[in-house]
Amino acid sequence: MDADELKAILLDSFYGTDRGLSVSSEARAEISELITQLEAKNPNPAPTEAVDKLSGQWKLLYTINSELTGLLGLGRLPGVEVGEISQSVNGSMLSITNTVTIGGPVSRTAFSAKAAFEIMSPKRIQVRFERAVIETPQLLTDKEFPSSIYFLGQSLDLTSLKDVLQPVNASVRSTAISISNFLQNKPNLDVAIPGNRGAQSWLLTTYLDDDLRVSRGDNGAVFVLAKDAYSSGGGLRERVLNALAVA
């Protein structure tokens, strides 16, 4: 089986796992085996020297044994949505920016960790986190009162209640727009991260091509990421989108 076939099977196996949060032990073992097989076919055995391929915007598809598992778990809280988790790599500047988008019932924001990295070997880099940025929250002024909700497996019709609350909804939206306009003029919160051992980690890139990357980190962490410009083929793009879907 060649690398392209393995990639297709691996991406398909991510469907419904919520980026690794909701994966059974059996599925995890199968995915781990596929990752190992793909790593054996790495077309770039010295990823840190392939700057053009390593650089770019990468989107997280799957992770296990990483600190991101707890972050993904926030999405199980009522009204909380964990959006895109991405990593921007600038090989020429030796910098990395990790970003996660978090949404709530009425607002959305993004958290970023900016880091510098040092090349330690053809596969390994040492990462030193320097700054943390919290974007000014964006109010979701386009939210509508739902016509129905699911409760205990039943669909409840809220149409009549929606009509009654329409004047209140309009007033709340007007206030939200005013607050949103005010917040747009506020800067992001940008703070320095103290330079201690807790702000450092290492990352080993074990597979890298034009579209996909596999990296391993501290405590057995595994990350599978797809390049944001995954347009080399329609089939791959569809599989990446399906990998991010929740069953």
Shape: globular
Strand numbers in spatial order across the main sheet: 1-2-3-4-5-10-11-12
Distance between the termini: 28 Å
User: How many helical stretches?
Assistant: 7
Query: What is the helix content?
Result: 25-40%
Computed structural class:
alpha+beta
Task: Summarize the main sheet.
Answer: 8 strands, antiparallel, barrel
What value does the Rg take, in angstroms? 21 Å
> Which oligomeric form is depicted?
single chain
Order of helices and strands: HHHEHEEEEEEEHHEEEEH
- Total strand count, please? 12
Uncertain residue ranges? 149-153
Mean pLDDT: 80
Roughly what fraction of the amino acids lie in strands? 35-45%
Task: Give a written overview of the molecule.
The chain is α+β, with helices and mostly antiparallel strands and about 250 residues long. About 30% of the residues lie in helices and about 35% in strands. The chain is built from seven helices and twelve strands. The chain has an eight-stranded antiparallel barrel with strand order 1-2-3-4-5-10-11-12. The chain has a two-stranded antiparallel sheet with strand order 7-8. Helix 1 packs antiparallel against helix 2 and helix 1 packs parallel to helix 7. About 0% of the residues have low confidence.
